[in-house]
Structure formats: C-alpha cells, structure tokens
Amino acid sequence: MTLSLVSSLATAHSSCATDGTFPTATVAGGVVIGTTTTYPSAYINKYLGIPFAKSPPVRFSPPQKPLPWSSPLNATKFKPACIQQFISIVYPFINDDFRAIFDNPPLPESEDCLYLNVFAPTGTAVDSGKPVMLWIHGGSLQLGSASVPEYDGSVLTVQQDIIVVTTNYRTNVFGFPTSPQLAPEERNLGFMDQRQALAWVSQNIRAFGGDPSKVTIFGESAGAYSVKQILANLPRPLQFRGAIMQSQALGDQGDGDKSWSALADALGCGLTTSQLDLGDGIHTHTVADVPLLIGTNADEGSILTSVMPDSQTLLEEIFGNDTRSQALARAIYPRNATENELKSRIVTDYLYTCLTSTIASTLNGAGLKVWRYFFNASFPNNRPFPRVGA
C-alpha cells in the first residue's frame, strides 16, 4: 500500500511572475489570479483553489456547475480538504501512518471543498496546446486531498513540460453515502465530483495553455480505482485520451446499506424501511478504448506486515483448505526470506499484483493497448515512514 507517485515532492518558493505581475487566466466562471513559484532553473504558475463545482455542494446530492464570479478570483492558496476519515478499525496503527502522509501539517477540512489546482510552466500561451494530466488522489475513498504536499504538480510540470491538474472530491459518507433512500446513481457522489472536475478540465484547460484533446487521467490506490470507474463508465463525449492506474488493491463491495444503518443508529436517526430490487452480481461494461499504463510497487504490503498473522495463516486464509495451492504459492518465494518479507510479498501479490495482472490481460485480450510497469526502487529520503519499501 506504499504510495507510488509519478511526481516527487518539489521545493518551491512563492513569488510573483518573472515580470513582477501575477499570472492570470480566464475560464468559464471568470478571471483567476494565480501565483508563480521557483523551481531549479524554472518557474511554475500555480492556480490554486479554483471551483469546479458549486460550493458548498448540497449534502448527499450530485455536484452542480460552479457559479460565475464577477471579481477576479484569488487562486493563490489551497482550499480546504473534504471531510476526512482517518480511523481504521481493522488496523488502528495505520491511522498514524495515514496522518503522517495525508495530514502533515494538518489540513483544514470543510464540506466546501470542490476545488482543483492547475500547475503550468510560466510563459505558456493560451494556444500552446500542451498535454494535460489530471491527478486523482488515493486514500481508500475515505480521506486524501489535492493539497497534500506530495501531490504538488510542480516537478512533473517542469520536467515534462505539461499542465498538471489535481482535484479534490468528496470522500467517506459525504462522498459515498450508500443510503437505501438514495437512487443508486446518486450514491457515488465522489465519483461524480471527479467527473465534474474532468468536464471542467475539458472546458477550461485551454486558458492555461493545455490541449483538451491531450488529457491523461491518473491515480493511485483509490485514485486508480476511480480511474477504472471512469474507464468503465464513459463520459460522453470522451474527455481524455489515456489513463494510468497505480497500485489499485483488491477489495470487495461491502454492504453499503448496513453501513448506512449503522451510521444512522450511531447518530440517533431513525430509518424508514424500503425495498430495493436485487441487481446482477457480476457487472459488465464497455471500456474506453484508450491506452492504459497500469502497475504496482514491489512492497505494497509492507505497511501491513506487523498486524498480519504468520505467512502460513495468510496462505490458509487465501486458499482455504487447498493445501496444494498453499504449497505452490509458498514455493514461488525465496526460501531465505524473513517472515516479514514473506508476508509482505504474499499481501502484495494477493491484493495488488494479481488484480493488476488480471485487469491488464483482460483488457489486452479485448484488443486495448495496455502497458504494465513494476516499480522496485526504494530511497530513504522519500519513504513516508521507515518500515515501508518501494
């Protein structure tokens, strides 16, 4: 579950543009005023906290188009994160790890959070037609924000000469309420927020020198899952030309109705009874015919090893009483591996590698262009905490 980021943390200093003025752009809602930061041998224009939807959103309702503004919008500071949920009942120790990544320093939180950020090389003309990358953050659909320092788009912008956009979206119960009283298509509000951000990019990115026909969507963990949802539920017209999925983990659908009922009980709210038609257990979709880069890291499971049972118990939980499969699985790992290394490899393969392989081979078999990557480089200066690897 180690973060796999395309860009690394940049050291930047706020300032005005090189000619003493602040950068501006005119989007559908009005004029936005950004800021310029320095990067070794380069400058980056940052437009932070641009509304891509009406804020604050109506609670438990789909996003709406943002209202226009009459005065120039100050887009020089990040807006608050959406409401965060750091508590993990299964693995409480991960709470501190998640806070170290996603809440250091602590981020302001608000329901008024549907904002995005644009990073562009200075001097980029409106008609530059640069490629665009839209980042969707991870966090188990429970937490995360576009303003996390690790998601600063400056390095990627400078090194690749592109436009980078990072976006917030509603998480946890605010983004995925699962109430049986809501229509099924209105339960995944966080995914709708992401689509609204993508639509905003398609409509407005020319103002920053980007080409709306050259948009790539990319995300990590829950962000990769979000990318998959966009691929399988196509926006019309198609608003991107490529996709990158980083470190998506295997998961189950869970019982949303039961979770909603538990929340309502905890808050002392009554629920009316309702009946819903049962849906198909296996869903089929038409997938976007765009190039896909998909991959995993070598040590995705390392963060979980201290709370996992021993390796043999892990194999029994995965394969049940199938001792032959247990033995075959154990045989593929080095005999001299430590217990923690073995557990990390098992969890990594079971939760990440196998799923990635299945997705890649299935899409490739359907005629889509798919590339896989495997990242196994580990550097002490970019580890979020000591016990994780690549």
UniProtKB/TrEMBL annotation:
InterPro entries: AB_hydrolase_fold, AChE-related_enzymes, CarbesteraseB, Carboxylesterase_B_AS, Carboxylesterase_B_CS
Organism lineage: Eukaryota, Fungi, Dikarya, Ascomycota, Pezizomycotina
Family: Belongs to the type-B carboxylesterase/lipase family.
PROSITE patterns reported in the protein's UniProt record: CARBOXYLESTERASE_B_1, CARBOXYLESTERASE_B_2
GO terms for MF: carboxylic ester hydrolase activity
SUPFAM superfamilies: alpha/beta-Hydrolases
Source domain of life: Eukaryota
Enzyme class: hydrolase
Protein name, entry field: Carboxylic ester hydrolase
